[in-house]
Specification:
single chain; alpha+beta; Beta-lactamase Inhibitory Protein, Chain:B, domain 1; five-stranded antiparallel sheet; 23% strand; BamE-like; BamE_dom; Outer membrane protein assembly factor BamE; membrane; signal
């Protein structure tokens, strides 16, 4: 029988370390519209209209529902580190504003400053009312639901 030498054990150990380290890398994912700077720069205010913008950039990610019917193209890069929540690493929002005739009035670009970071406080939502314990939750309605089935005595005021 032949046994592994020192170099063979070192190679196996280094391969194991590489396999472990590769499982701890972040995963980068792209979501939404894929921005092509040349196509975006080709859109000219006062020259292009809704039809030419749609032919150049494609359908928008969404159209505003209130006020002017602006078109929005949203692009995000999201990193997912191991054992943690995904975080937006890069974001670009392109807003195409149109005038009343349907021609491009302006193009606005926004970036990461539009990302809202919300950190909830605690794991419970406070509510108004009394604090009830476990036993009160389990047995709080005993005797009140269904009653005895007896007819009320007297008039509406209990007399």
């Amino acid at each position: 029988m032949r046994t592994f030498g020192h170099k063979a054990w070192l190679a196996v150990a280094s391969l194991g370390l590489v396999a472990l380290a590769s499982g701890c890398t972040s995963i980068t994912d792209h979501r939404g519209y894929i921005m092509d700077p040349m196509l975006v720069d080709a859109i000219q205010p006062g020259i292009d209209n809704r039809t030419s913008v749609e032919r150049t950039l494609g359908r928008p990610t969404f159209v505003s529902q209130f006020g002017a019917k602006d078109w929005f193209y949203v692009s995000q890069d999201v990193k997912s580190p191991p054992f943690r929540r995904p975080r937006t690493s890069d974001q670009t929002i392109l807003r195409v504003r149109f005038d009343d005739a349907g021609n491009v009035a302006a193009l606005d670009r926004k970036g990461e400053e539009q990302i809202a970071r919300i950190d909830p406080e605690g794991d419970k939502t406070p509510t108004l009312g009394s604090e009830r314990g476990l036993l009160e939750d389990l047995f709080g309605n005993v005797g009140t639901v269904g009653g005895t089935g007896a007819a009320p005595v007297g008039g509406p005021n209990g007399s």
